[in-house]
Specification:
The protein is mainly alpha-helical. The chain is built from 22 helices and 6 strands. It has helices at residues 20-40, 43-60, 72-78, 84-98, 100-103, 117-127, 129-147, 158-161, 163-181, 187-207, 238-259, 265-286, 290-302, 328-339, 388-402, 409-412, 417-426, 432-439, 462-473, 476-485, 487-490, 497-504, and strands spanning 309-313, 316-320, 352-355, 377-380, 449-451, 458-460. Strands 1-2-3-4 form a 4-stranded mixed sheet. Strands 5-6 form a two-stranded antiparallel ribbon. The chain is elongated and about 95 Å long. The chain starts with 19 loop residues before the first helix and ends in a 15-residue tail after the last helix.
């Protein structure tokens, strides 16, 4: 009996398995997702992100009139300080996550796992990326909200906007690095305080014009409370700094992997490349044409006509820096409203409205602007909206009544011209009494006080204030007709407030006119 041999036509099929490196990469990503989710459940992360988001919402919901005309080169820097506490929370929490096994005494059990320690460190590093991305979304929402407003002025800088997300990313990377370098839960707290002091000092050094301050990973924007200036006068190497900090984050992440035992060729190559980019970024942000920047600031301050464009509206010229060209129609509206109440030649006067700054001693400073001595020239600043509108109207009315901005307080402090000026400012205002209060430094419509303007303010005696207050209580059409009819007397230096009150049909003020003007 012969034996038969059975043969298989096809070999047995086996399930295809991914390569070993692919499986390891997938395992790292799975662990990174797990750690990112665990970070989300940490109380400091939830509390400080809620505070961060709440602060953004409160700021965006503010109702200040100037918020309708945001200057975007200040808005982008305003996003930089807010994520700082969230970054600190991430540093502490990711450090605790990286030290979890050491804290619970389970680090020895990792020796039986296929994943090497440096891959676990990589997973912790990747777990902070979603939070940097979340910060980027918050920054984009905050900036986009302002940029989409119809009155938004200028443009922002991607480098400045990147500071907030990069601060969060840097904090997360440092948290993992500290866990590999100094495995103690107290180290992050000891690190945060001196690092914050260094960041503040570096920001002050950078704002003072020194390039050394930009070597700090975190350089906050200059104080945005002063008057904005054109973007090309800021002199902030934001793009180079963003490249520098990004490369520094990669370099520190590679250092953490090396400390955790990562000796792969890819890690070493990434370390070398990151260090090279750090050097390039450091050089790029330190090289700047300081003399050229100073010359540009001087030109913009002393001879703005060389860098401005002008447009004509209703017979008057409006000259602005390029980023503010869209606001000229708003200026023209105020000039038209004020001029419509004037009489005599002032009703058809041709004015030149010129935007002015003073950046000779630096930017973002509330420098006082010298009144112009050129007849018919009106100064306007770089902020618009809110109280800046009636203040500009004061400047326009002063030029229509007195001829120039340089009319001194002593010349007008006891005659009727301040009364005429304030009528031109308030006569067509929808809320004249409120505007009268807000445009005065004392926030009062009684007694003597100073009225704000783009250059020198206007001082009013108690008698002049009383006449203006009485005018606002009279029918608008009646007062407007009397102002036009008696324009010559009301703009004369010889007319007193009491005489102006008689001409305008209101009761003469009871206050004495011999009092000194408010300084």
């Amino acid at each position: 009996m012969s034996a038969t041999t059975a043969t298989l036509a096809d070999p047995a099929r086996t399930l295809a398995e991914p390569p070993r490196e692919a499986r390891r990469a997938r395992a790292v990503l799975d662990l990174a997702r797990f750690e990112a989710r665990e970070l989300l459940y940490q109380t400091p992360m939830l509390v400080f992100f809620a505070l961060y988001a709440g602060f953004i919402v409160l700021r965006l919901m503010s109702r200040d009139g100037m918020d309708s005309y945001p200057v975007l080169n200040t808005v982008d820097r305003r996003t930089q300080m807010t994520p700082l506490l969230f970054a600190v929370a991430l540093l502490v929490c990711v450090n605790a996550a990286a030290l979890r096994s050491r804290k619970h005494g389970t680090v020895q059990q990792f020796g039986v796992l296929a994943m090497e320690p440096w891959r676990r460190a990589l997973a912790h590093l990747l777990s902070v990326v979603p939070y940097a991305a979340l910060t980027a979304v918050a920054v984009a929402v905050e900036f986009g909200w302002e940029a989409l407003k119809p009155g938004a002025i200028g443009h922002g800088s991607f480098g400045e906007l990147a500071v907030g997300p990069l601060t969060v990313l840097f904090a997360g990377v440092v948290g993992v690095l500290l866990a590999c370098l100094l495995p103690s839960s107290f180290v992050p707290l000891l690190f945060v305080i001196p690092f914050y002091a260094v960041a503040v000092l570096a920001s002050a050094v950078a704002d003072a014009g020194s390039r050394a301050g930009w070597l700090s990973p975190v350089v906050f924007g200059a104080d945005t409370g002063g008057d904005p200036v054109p973007s090309d006068l800021l002199g902030r190497p934001a793009g180079w700094h963003a490249l520098y900090v990004t490369a520094l984050c990669v370099a520190l992440a590679c250092a953490a992997l090396l400390l955790a035992g990562g000796r792969a060729r890819a890690v070493k190559a990434a370390t070398a490349l990151a260090l090279a980019v750090v050097a390039v970024g450091a050089i790029g942000q330190s090289v700047q044409d300081t003399a050229g920047l100073a010359a540009a600031r001087t030109t913009a301050s002393d001879s703005p006509q060389k860098v401005q464009s002008c447009a004509t509206h209703d017979g008057s010229r409006y000259c602005a820096f390029p980023e503010w060209s869209g606001v000229r129609s708003e200026w023209a509206g105020v000039v038209g409203r004020v001029r419509s109440l004037a009489g005599g030649d002032a009703a058809n006067a041709s004015l030149t409205v010129r935007q002015r700054i003073d950046a000779r001693s630096g930017v973002e400073a509330d420098a006082a602007l010298t009144p112009s001595t050129v007849p018919g020239r009106v100064t306007v600043g770089t902020r618009w909206g809110g109280n800046r509108v009636p203040e500009f109207a004061v400047g326009v009315a002063t030029v229509l009544v007195a001829g120039t901005e340089a009319a001194t307080e002593e010349e007008m402090c006891r005659d009727a011209r301040p009364v005429t000026i304030m009528w031109l400012v308030l006569g067509a205002d929808p809320t004249p009494s409120d505007t009268f209060r807000h445009v005065r430094l004392s926030d009062s419509t009684e007694g003597s006080g100073s009225v704000l303007a783009p250059t020198n303010g206007l001082s009013m005696t108690a008698a002049q204030t009383t006449v203006v207050r009485e005018l606002l209580a009279r029918p608008h059409a009646e007062v407007a007709a009397r102002v036009k009819a008696h324009w010559a007397e009301l703009t004369s230096t010889a007319t007193s407030p009491a005489e102006a009150a008689k001409l305008l049909g209101v009761a003469a003020p009871q206050e004495t006119e011999a009092q000194s003007c408010t300084q």
